[in-house]
Specification:
Layout lengths: L1 E5 L5 H15 L2 E5 L2 H18 L6 E12 L2 E12 L2 H9 L9
Parallel strand pairs: 1-2
Antiparallel strand pairs: 2-4, 3-4
Helix pairs in contact: 1-2
């Protein structure tokens, strides 16, 4: 899975575009962020990306986890966000439960 590294100064719209491109090409993408500012930009990018793909009937899920990485010879803890298309079975379950489908706002 391709890894996109996001910094506190990253442009969320640019990250969202890259995220959607990798998602279409590879079917999934991992975002890594170290620090609150970087994580904030990453979450904004995921939100924007969801808005890009929702009109085409695609919904995405975000699975957060911690990962240890090395930066300049030092061990750091990053947050990784695994972004994947939502499984079709989940949407079918929503219909069976009479729930409204999830749409981007």
């Amino acid at each position: 899975m391709e890894v996109l590294k996001v910094a506190a100064r990253s442009n969320p719209n640019s990250v969202a575009g890259a995220l959607v491109g990798v998602l279409r090409e590879k079917g999934g993408v991992e975002i890594q962020a170290v620090g609150a500012g970087a994580l904030n930009q990453a979450i904004k990018a995921v939100t924007i990306a969801r808005g890009f793909v929702a009109p085409r009937g695609l919904d995405i899920v975000c699975i957060p986890a911690f990962v240890d990485i090395e930066i300049d010879g030092q061990e750091r803890t990053a947050v990784k966000l695994i972004i994947e298309p939502r499984a079709a079975g989940i949407n079918g379950l929503s219909e069976k439960l009479n729930l409204e489908p999830v749409t981007a706002r």
